[in-house]
Specification:
mainly beta, SH3 type barrels, 7-stranded mixed sheet, 6% helix
Length: 149
Amino acid sequence: MTDYPDRFMPGAVLLAGDAKYTIRAVRTHKKALLVALEGINTRNQAEALRGKLFEVPEGDLPRLDEDQYFRFDIVGISVVDEKGTSLGKVEEVLETGANDVYIVRDEESELLIPAIDSVVKEIDTGAQRMVVELIPGLERRPLKRPLGD
């Protein structure tokens, strides 16, 4: 997942857990990038990386415009309404096409918050706080618990 596919060029570094990989070559195949990594020379070595999340070192991230955030800036942030009532924390960010949706959960409920200006009034990543306006239609729904809980 990236909005900056041009960062995947030979010599760029990717992280997968504690491991560091350098890109050897890149080519486009259909609508995907095929990336060759230094030190990964066989199919078995490549298969061992299947399903791994590759990340870019934080120092290599591009500067964002004001009011733009990386997902890792948003996940885990506390959410309150305009009166200061706690609504929970952002657990996930869904990409819907039109706009992202923040899944906010507390111990008992969840709330889907569209990432639009009319709802999200303030994000302070330093304070780990988001202020939202609960417009009509935005309602908490109880979390469904597995049987036996």
